[in-house]
Amino acid sequence: KAESIKKFDEVYSSEINKSYDGSYLDRIVTMVDVKEEFNIKINDINKDSEVILINSLNGEKQDMIYTENNEFVLTTKLDEGVNYGILMDNKLIGGIRVVNGLDKAEKEKIYEEVMKSLQCGI
After folding, report:
1. Half-sphere exposure of 110 (CA within 13 A, CB side)
2. How many Cβ atoms are within 10 Å of 57's Cβ, its own excluded?
3. Residue 99: closest CA among 115, 85, 79, 117
4. What are phi and psi of 99, to 5 degrees?
5. What is the pLDDT of residue 12?
6. What is the pLDDT of residues 64-108, one digit of tens each?
7. How far apart (Å, rounded) are the C-alpha atoms in residues 60 and 53?
8. Which of 12, 25, 57, 72 is deepest in the core (most CB within 10 A)?
9. Cα angle 75-80-81, degrees, rounded to a multiple of 5
10. Domain range summary for the chain, segments of one domain joined by +
11. 3-class SS at 104?
């Protein structure tokens, strides 16, 4: 029965909404279909935290901004095929991967790749 537990989120819009469960993002891996730009929102994180999106290929970091809605937000372009890590106070809490043709993609395989990348600490 363990196989039926969903390990990742699939997002087909440009809105990526996540919650922090105290250890990791709820669904540690998020796969998104290709879009021009994404709005990332994460809730349930302490406002004094530093939340960063990092590109695992080039190390480029983008700060997420805390809003009055108790969310960290970032509107950004995400490149296809790149694993992005989400860091909270320098601790990895989740990952995002943009997949072309997400509906037909080998999601289990992509999940394994992203997890491997995340376990290497990006």
Report:
1. 27
2. 13
3. 79
4. -125, 125
5. 97
6. 999 999 999 999 999 999 999 999 999 999 999 999 999 999 999
7. 8
8. 72
9. 125
10. 2-119
11. helix
Question: Per the structure block, which two tokens stand in for 5?
Answer: 């537990």
Token pair in block for residue 113: 């790749």
Question: From CA 88, how far away is CA 13, in angstroms rounded?
Answer: 24
pLDDT band at 5 (very low <50, low <70, confident <90, very high): low
Task: Enumerate residues 6+ apart whose C-beta is below 8 A from 48.
Answer: none
CATH superfamily of 2-119: Cupredoxins -  blue copper proteins (2.60.40.420)
The phi, psi pair for 110, rounded to 5°, reads -65, -40
Quick check: 10 and 102 in contact, CB under 8 A? yes
- What is the Cα–Cα distance from 5 to 3, expressed in whole angstroms? 5
Q: Is the pLDDT of residue 122 over 70?
A: no
Give the pLDDT confidence of 12-42 residue by residue, as tens digits: 999 999 999 999 999 999 999 999 999 999 9
Q: What is the pTM of this model?
A: 0.91
Helix (H, G, I), strand (E, B) or coil at 38: strand
